[in-house]
Amino acid sequence: MLVEETIHWLAIKPGGFYVDATVGLGGHAIEIVRRLGAGGQFVGLDRDAAALEIARARLAEFGDKVTLVHANFSQIGEVFAERRLPPADGVICAWIATPKRRQTTL
Predict the structure, then answer these.
(1) Which CATH number covers residue 82?
(2) pTM for the full model?
(3) Tens digits of residue pLDDT in 2-31
(4) What backbone torsions phi and psi does residue 30 show, to the nearest 5 degrees?
């Protein structure tokens, strides 16, 4: 959803550190990580373990540039503190209501 616009407004810089607090299946993540270059890092969070595993498989080619964490977006501060992460160059977070998500949140 709005991948091109998101990438444009993130203004990704090579070697930067970016976070997707609702990584889902990894669609935005793939496009972000492709632009990171050497030294760049990406962290993705999602509360849905099944979606996170799909994202993990889709992002596997990027190796240790990518860290995926099973956590709700509201726990982003805790994730940063526990992992001693530096300030991010950009963060995205999107909540999309799909039938599956509505069933699990009601």
Answers:
(1) 3.40.50.150
(2) 0.86
(3) 888 888 899 999 999 999 999 999 999 999
(4) -55, -45
